[in-house]
Specification:
The strands form two sheets. A three-stranded mixed β-sheet has the order 1-4-5, with no helix packed on it. A two-stranded antiparallel sheet has the order 2-3. It is built from four helices and five strands, in the order ββββαβααα.
Length: 151
Amino acid sequence: MLFAFQATAGKRDVESGVLICERLGVGAMDIGGLHALPGEAVRLKLQNTFAGTKYRLRWQPDMEAYLICHLAAVLPICYLAYACGGDMLSSTGKQRKLMRMATKEAYGLLRAQGNPILPGGDDAYYEPGVRGMIMQRFHDEVMRFMNGESV
């Protein structure tokens, strides 16, 4: 049995009610077994299924750990949305910084419990340095985009 997670997000246009899909490029899917990579035959079959498309399959060695890490990244976003009454555009830079710090702390807790951080290297986006600056800029640009400003 395989588990997969498609890397997309979206928002609902308030006026029209239309759902807008957001993604980088043509899309990708993180996929793997509960605690192991799928066998070679299964990987080849799935790769052949998507052959000729630009859709990427990213193999993960432990989808349970992956989903736990996903929660560590997404829950602070959800709590910020709740704190802002669902209006993320009203969030402040300080609130978004606290959101990133909460994710960093959650990743540290998971690491201390022996949980691998998946996808590998994602925790670097919440540390000081270039990746951390990229993530901060990304969150700020997303807020600007959602507010209709040019990015």
